[in-house]
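Z., the sequence and structure:
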Amino acid sequence: MLEWASSRNRPDVREANGLSSSAGASETNPAKKTGISLALGGGCARGWAHIGVLRALDEAGIEVSMIAGTSIGALVGGCYLAGKLDELEEFARSLTKRRIFGLLDLNLRGSGLFGGMKLDARLREHMAGIRFEDLPKPFVCVTSEIRTGHEIWLSGGSL
């Protein structure tokens, strides 16, 4: 687990990749000492603004050395590091209210109003075979375990 994430000492935080909290970044995906680290948050449709932020940083020549994200921020950060930001932006720009409602699956059980399975299936098509370990920079996705609400930090496995 990344050093800044492992310093947390909370019983409600779980590491899904099985790494001990004392493990550093993998040797194949080391954290660089230059550049900035980004924390990209949620915010539904407002989260698409992360695409513009990443493009502006690239244009300014500011290196991003690591990304952590949750919700839409995790989606944008993962796509950016996987080289899929153009595809994601094209998808975001194509969204209409009708298309959005077509992707939402109402979920009256659990912790959220929408299950997200239709959107998940579409994303899997475009991200098939990409793993955290394949990314050029460290990436952490913060999520929640639906049944317990526990925070989970993902940094390995299928993106």
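Residues 3-154 form one domain. The two ends are 16 Å apart (CA to CA).

Let me know what you think.
H.
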